[in-house]
Amino acid sequence: MDIPASKPGYRALRRGRWSEPGRIYLMTTVAHAREKRFAEWEAASVVCGAMSEAETWPGAKLLCWVLMPDHWHGLVHLEDPIRLDRLVGLAKGRSARALIAAQERTGPVWMSGFHDRALRREENLLDAARYVVANPLRSGLVERIADYPYWDSIWVEERRG
Fold it and tell me: What Pfam families does its record include (predicted)?
């Protein structure tokens, strides 16, 4: 399907996309039709489980993430030469298959495409991680990050240790 030039959509997001090993990317992907598919505990926990497994991110390391009722944000460190679109496609496919199996429901889970932004080397990584996990606060879902169950960060474990 051709997308009209006046509405470039996801094609414009792909233009100039470069997957650079060693780079950290802020990524966002959205539920199909912006449906609040992850608002219920069962669906959210299934998707969180699939998205947080190391096998979901071959050639990369998931540093932090948050699952919102209708979208997902994450910071991903690209370690191997794998294309971002392939990596995100694997993650979305794995989480979608898990959710469809758990809910015995068919149909698309994620919208096609995703948004990414490479962090500049001078950007503070912890500030970017705080931005990701604070999404439920900014959205008014909770008053404290600790009250929102659908997020994780590698720095949480480091502080506990």
Answer: Y1_Tnp (PF01797)
